[in-house]
Prior knowledge:
This protein is mainly alpha-helical. The chain is built from 2 helices and no strands. The longest helix is centred in the middle third of the chain and has 136 residues, at 8-143. The radius of gyration is 65 Å and the shape is rod-shaped. The protein starts with 7 loop residues before the first helix and ends with a helix.
Amino acid sequence: MSLVTPEFGLLFWMVVIFGIVFFLLAKFGFPVITDMVDERSAKIAKSLKDADEIEARMAAWKVEQAKLVEETRRQQAAILKNATETKAKIVADAKVQAKAEADKILSEAKLQIEAEKESALRDVRKEIALLSVQVAEKVLRNELSDEGSQHAFIDKLVDEAGEAKLRS
């Protein structure tokens, strides 16, 4: 037997066995394989369809996300603007209140200074009056040391009082 050229009997049995195997495969194997290939194709097609849907949803989400980011930025800008305006208003109110308080303190200080000035002037006048009375007393004692000058001074005062009464 030669390996290169098979004999007829060997060739016959090989063809019969091949036919049986082919028949069995055609009857039982190929339908299962084609069903599996069809299922796999359907699964791949479904996965591609799902991927396209997911991609479309992702694109829609990206658009929605961009809108949300833009809206958030607008809200942030509005909040910052509002905060800036509120800050400016608070600062302006504080300045006005501080100026009013300063004016009030200044006017109170002026009134207090004026009252202290009046009090000091009264004290000075009082001291001057006391000093004047003391000086006058000392001068009168020196001038009125004798009785004659005392009588002359009393007469002079009575005359002046009488003239003052006549004028009124």
